[in-house]
Design goal:
The complex is a heterodimer of chains A (316) and B (281). Chain A folds into two domains: 7-172, Thiamin diphosphate (ThDP)-binding fold, Pyr/PP domains (Rossmann fold, 3-Layer(aba) Sandwich), CATH 3.40.50.970; 187-314, 3-Layer(aba) Sandwich (Rossmann fold), CATH 3.40.50. Helices cover 40% and strands 20% of the residues of chain A. Chain A contains 13 helices and 14 strands. Classes of the chains: A alpha/beta (316), B alpha/beta (281).
């Protein structure tokens, strides 16, 4: 790594901010499924036991209970791991929350392969696809702990169902403390005029590393953080793609995530050569960094994708 | 707690004889609206309708003029396919015009094929079985947190008890001591394809609910006087969650629909409608 980022896990920032928001808003209630130490929801639970409900690992029940609580005007925040919060209770989210457009905030930690040693069953690599398949849901993938805090505040403030994707591992803090998150927009992380790298979540820092490395090879990359995956800011994405070459970078299965969202926009509005850095399938147990390298989500993979798309740009 | 309840001035509870008259009219609505839609679920609507009549015309603290009044009792139809019964009672109670029943399942209607919150008086959207009792747990917890005094009632099907989520919800309701949550099982013994005994044995059902920490009452869900009495007893029970196992007959009131799985999810044709209406005269 060439850029000296500080590191903090997004789930840690989430737990602290949830407690802070809970102190100021008595309507916030928190629901968990026996993973509250790991998600850091316990910080809230310890201070507000009467507004904190552990249902055990019974995620179907949790989602429908959240719908009932939201129906009374409270703001339920459901926290668990991505695989248990999206994959397991999808039908309960679909019918009870999405179809009734209820004000439920689903915040899942341990998304992606960086959940690490627990292996493929614990790697939520389909969660964005599932969340984006729910009409009316706002889907956020904050890039670091600074953005996580502000994304959570925005989600609590805005009525309607949200999914927020967070991570287990400590990850680079790429934003300064004066950063202002703008819900529904894009975030320009670095300017450049030859290639645009669109990244989401913790892959933003890897995209920045790749851009830095490419600068030494005289290739100037623009890096754009897509923190709001649904509804995506189509106009801003089109404008950001005026380099004429695009790379999509995400820690998610290649179907249904950032690449699919971008491809749909570009196919309709601005055909442009695009390369994809994403997962081709399920991974395995291992350390987060080792998994990113083995499953081709690391800096060299982004660098290679940029070079591929530049070649295509020249012959486009 | 019950004495603290703010009774809405518009409520004029009907007595047994009137309730029986109303439920017969609602049975006519159920067969007529499913006939007109040429689809829908008359069997489970006919089995639940005496219970719904007792609830909506006597037990529930509601105000059709002000359907989102914050202190109203909440009713959740977990077996949301049996919405013809719910729509019939809601319209008769004044939540929307009676003529609107003719739009059931038709395009641009507020009356969806499965209960949905777009209908005035429908509290929660359903249609995928097993979710309503959990909605009820959330509503009851919400009432407690907001220190409001209303009750939540959830009607679930017996076939629906095959869903594991019912038992997740049952366990959590007793864990959280939700004395403001009341469940009713429409025990009509027939589900979509066959009898509940053939598809998935539920007995001993009373023991199951007791083992999950619920107080259990049983009643003949078509005997109006008994049903009314047990619902009031359930409303007053404050020791924890209560479930009423209501023994009913699928298709009750129409001879050829009674105990006939074919009318779980099929509408009467022209001739069947005529006969049904004659029997319900």
């Amino acid at each position: 790594m060439t850029i000296p980022f500080e590191k903090e896990a997004t789930r840690v920032a989430f737990g602290k901010e949830l407690l802070e928001l809970g102190r100021n808003n008595p309507d916030i209630v928190v629901l968990g499924g026996d993973l509250n130490k790991s998600t850091n929801a316990n910080l809230f639970g310890n201070e507000f036991p009467s507004r904190f409900f552990d249902f055990g690992p019974a995620e179907q029940n949790i989602m429908s209970v959240a719908a009932g609580l939201a129906s009374t005007g409270l703001i339920p925040v459901v926290t668990t791991f991505a695989v248990f919060g999206l994959c397991r209770p999808f039908d309960q989210i679909r019918v009870g929350i999405a179809q009734a457009n209820l004000n439920v905030k689903i915040v899942c930690t341990h998304a992606g392969i960086t959940a690490g040693e627990d292996g493929a069953s614990a790697h939520g690599i389909e969660d964005i696809a599932l969340a984006c398949a729910l009409p009316g849901f706002t889907v956020l993938a904050p890039s670091d702990s600074v953005e996580t805090v502000q994304a959570l505040r925005a989600a609590i403030k805005m009525p309607g169902p949200f999914y927020i994707r967070l991570y287990r591992s400590a990850s680079p803090v790429i934003h300064k403390s004066d950063y202002r998150f703008k819900l529904g927009q894009t975030d320009l992380l670095r300017n450049g005029n030859e290639v645009t790298i669109f990244a989401s979540g913790i892959m933003c820092s890897i995209a920045l590393e790749a851009a830095e490395e490419l600068r030494h090879q005289n290739i100037e990359c623009r890096v754009v953080n897509i923190h709001t995956l649904a509804p995506a800011d189509e106009d801003a994405i089109i404008r950001a793609a005026d380099t004429g070459a695009v790379v999509s970078v995400e820690e998610h299965y290649r179907h249904g995530g950032l690449a699919s969202i971008l491809a749909q926009i570009f196919a309709r509005k601005l055909p442009v050569p695009m390369e994809v850095v994403a997962l081709d399938g399920y991974a395995e147990s291992g350390k987060a960094d080792d998994l990113l390298a083995k499953y081709r989500l690391d800096v060299p993979d982004v660098v290679a994708a940029v070079k591929r798309v530049l070649k295509r740009k020249q012959s486009y | 707690m019950n004495s603290l309840k703010r009774e809405h001035p518009a409520i004029m509870p009907l007595e047994v004889e009137s309730l029986e008259t109303v439920s017969k009219e609602l049975r006519r609505d159920i067969v007529s609206m499913t006939h007109r839609a040429a689809s829908g679920h008359p069997g489970g609507s006919l089995s639940e309708i005496d219970i719904l009549t007792a609830l909506y015309f006597n037990v529930l603290n509601i105000d059709p003029e002000n359907p989102y009044w914050s202190d109203r009792d909440r009713f959740v139809l977990s077996k949301a396919h049996a919405c013809p019964g719910l729509y019939a009672v809601l319209s008769r109670r004044g939540f929307f015009p009676h003529e609107e029943l003719a739009t059931f399942r038709k395009i641009d209607s507020r009356l969806q094929g499965h209960a949905h919150t777009k209908t005035p008086g429908v509290e929660m959207s359903g249609g995928s079985l097993g979710q309503g009792l959990s909605f009820g747990v959330g509503l009851a917890l919400g009432a407690r947190l907001r220190t409001q005094v209303w009750d939540t009632w959830v009607l679930i099907g017996d076939g629906e008890c095959d869903e594991g989520q019912i038992w997740e919800a049952a366990m959590s309701a007793s864990h959280y001591g939700l004395s403001n949550l009341k469940a009713i099982v429409d025990r009509n013994r027939i589900q979509n394809d066959r009898t509940t005994d053939e598809v998935m044995k539920l007995e001993p059902l009373v023991d199951k609910w007791r083992a999950f920490g619920w107080k259990v009452f049983e009643v003949d869900g078509h005997a109006m006087s008994d049903t009314l009495a047990i619902l009031h007893r359930t409303a007053q029970e404050k020791s924890g969650p209560v479930v009423v196992i209501a023994h009913t007959v699928k298709g009750k009131g129409v001879s050829f629909m009674e105990n006939n799985p074919a009318f779980h999810g099929a509408a009467p044709n022209d001739q069947e409608l005529m006969q049904a209406l004659r029997e319900l005269d």
